[in-house]
Amino acid sequence: MSSLSVGLLGFGLAGSVFHAPLIRSEPRLRLTAVASSRVDDIRRSAPGAEATTAAAVIADPAIDLVVIATPNTSHAPLAREALLAGKHVVIDKPMATTAAEAGELIDLAKRQGRLLTVFHNRRWDNDFLTLRACLEAGEIGRPYHYEAHYDRFRPQIKQGWRERTLAGSGVLFDLGAHLIDQALTLFGMPDRILADVGAQRPDAQVDDWFHIVLGYGPMRAILHCGTVVCRPGPRFQLHGDGGSFLKHGIDGQEAALRDGRMPTEADWGIDDLENHALLVQADGTERRVETLRGDYPAFYRGVAAAILDGAPPPVTAEQARDVLSVLEAVRKAAGLPA
């Protein structure tokens, strides 16, 4: 087999903006079916893909890989059906709404002998890649304070399932999953967790603000999200006994995909005064750090390589389950119901 036939479930924001164009950018993947009622959007954005139903995609023997980009409450049930049908499976983050559900899917994928992986695309943000490279190169020395923000200005509540009282809704599961995955990628599982999670905007039904502190011995990792932040501060800070790393601005890949185009060099490394990485060394010397190239297409390159070549998956299902374990611990630390 030299290529894989892919069926995509869902054509909302995740399916149409992220998964469809990234699948189509990988030469060894063929997007042949999309489960959605948005027929005109599919014809325009995914030419050649049949508009159909989730049941039809899962039952189709010609489909090798099922990608699930539906509301969070349906992730585990659809993944279970696809695995039982003998499909390889990609799930948009979060993998499920509970770590127990994720564990069941992992066991099922092993029994079925199929790939199960999760789309944690923020591992390939240019700012995160740059920070990780500086940390691994010893530019910071021993780290003691890590801080990652996902702040934005959305004072008005948008319509949609993410703003309704459903399992897996709210910014903690939506954006917190990204920040937690990045922290676990850098530092592993924490030894303790403190957290505050709340709803600040009038009429908000779900959480729209959180502040999480992950403990790693003497080091602290702070993960923060605010929804009414007109002028955000640094997106990343990392302070150690050898210096400090600061990064403003946000990776431009999502904005490019929202515009209906694949990211280019201009989107990968924007190093103007508002979007720069600064390294401050222990002697007070400051220098700009060239932002590395972001690479969302790396995820589906990795998926194709894992299935066709036997390479390691780009994100292991166990790593995605760890994110859910931390999300559950955060909710407990914040005094929220399980």
UniProtKB/TrEMBL annotation:
Pfam families according to UniProt: GFO_IDH_MocA, GFO_IDH_MocA_C
Keyword Disulfide bond: no
Keyword Metal-binding: no
Transmembrane segments: none
Gene3D superfamilies the UniProt entry points to: Dihydrodipicolinate Reductase, domain 2, NAD(P)-binding Rossmann-like Domain
Superkingdom assignment: Bacteria
Gfo/Idh/MocA-like oxidoreductase N-terminal domain mapped to chain residues: 5-120
Keywords from the named record: Oxidoreductase
Database matches in PANTHER family: CONSERVED EXPRESSED OXIDOREDUCTASE (EUROFUNG), CONSERVED EXPRESSED OXIDOREDUCTASE (EUROFUNG)-RELATED
Similarity comment: Belongs to the Gfo/Idh/MocA family.
Official protein name in the record: Oxidoreductase
Organism, as annotated: Azospirillum endophyticum
Lineage: Bacteria, Pseudomonadati, Pseudomonadota, Alphaproteobacteria, Rhodospirillales
